[in-house]
Amino acid sequence: MTNIIGASYVIGPEGTILEKGGLVYQDDTIRMVGTYEQCLKTFPESPKQFFFQAVLAPGFINAHMHLYGVLAHGLVSPVPLTGFSGFLNDFWWPYIENRIDEELLGPAVQLAALTLLESGVTTVCDVLEAPNMHETGLELEAKILHRLGMRAVLSLEASERISPENGMQCLQANARFIEAHRNDLLISSLLCLHTAITCPESFIQKAISLKKEVDCGLQLHLNESSYEPLWCQAHHGKRTALWYGDIGLLGEDLLAAQCVQLSDKEIATLADHKVRAVHVPLSNCEVGGGIAPIPKLLKTSISVGLGTDGYVNNFFAVMRGAFLIHKGYLEDGSVMPAKTVWALATEEGAKAVYGREARNGSLQKGYLADFQVISVRRIPTLITKDNIWEQVLLFCDPQDVREVCIGGTWVKQGGKLLTGNLGEATKACKKAAGKLWSREMQ
Asked: What is the 3-state secondary structure (H, E, C) of 15-58?
């Protein structure tokens, strides 16, 4: 059966705005986008609903996330930290990643995913950094996200930081997960590497071979701080992206998150290979990694998405960060306009995550019925077709997301989540975090 949804404003593909617009969807697919009146005339017998003082928009795409990361929110390192390498070696790896198990992961995924759904995120691209869960972690995440009705790309990060054997176990487990979910309507996957610091060339070549064998893409972290490119320069004679180009890792099937400390030559190399990128502005600030040169990336052919990294998962806050940080850093109020940031959060984010196969992040015929309805009743000034981006991005929050639909199925209606209870999930996650923090103190 076809259904009609209308709103005061509809945000269409490539930034088009329809006043009193609507869309028609059937099962999991959008059949039509136009004015609400056109939708009613074309499908006169369809059930219909119109939302006044609201914006009908594509669901947000969280293009880089660590669902387990909520467990560490507020955790103070028990050891002194010395730079980014110290953060990883002395704290994050031994006290967090190496200790993640099913008892901790399940509650974290449940809460993080519900928080994203509350925020209008319909797709999440997650990296599970739990090397000791290579047999069970991804399937546990998939089971929870299926129950919540959330679309996701799930990966298990692989490296040789523990051992070459563990690195291959993670790669092979990820490959098996890809095959198992080949026809899954909600869940898909990419292979995943950590960084050049933990992945020697011999290991990267194994990942490249496996990627070709399984016929999939690959994601990794790239130059999250100055530590990695300087390390790569010292060990390989050139910066990270340039070295990756030499060994055959770069290509349009590579998704690179962070991309903070990039030289102009690295940006040109990434663009030449049509690598896709993800901007995580608030997380980059939190770890002191720097400000990514996103305005420069956007002047190239690189598709750029937007991610929370598992740090601040209010997607409106992350969009505001992307909108404001670059203006202050570059001392130029014209950079990163709200319309551009919105594109990173939706259609460009989908292109970054899914590449040519993207069928979400935009409201257009033939695309997946992943959309949200955002109330603008709380905004105290007028909304026009020219200022709608700034008004929604700057002055709306998760409580203004009234409806969320994924693949034609409602997961939030009337401001209430339908597939999970945020309060109960918060209690369960607090309990799990308490167990992790107790382990951390031992």
From this structure: HCEEEEEEEEEECCEEEEEEEHHHHHHHCCCCCEEEEEEEEEEE
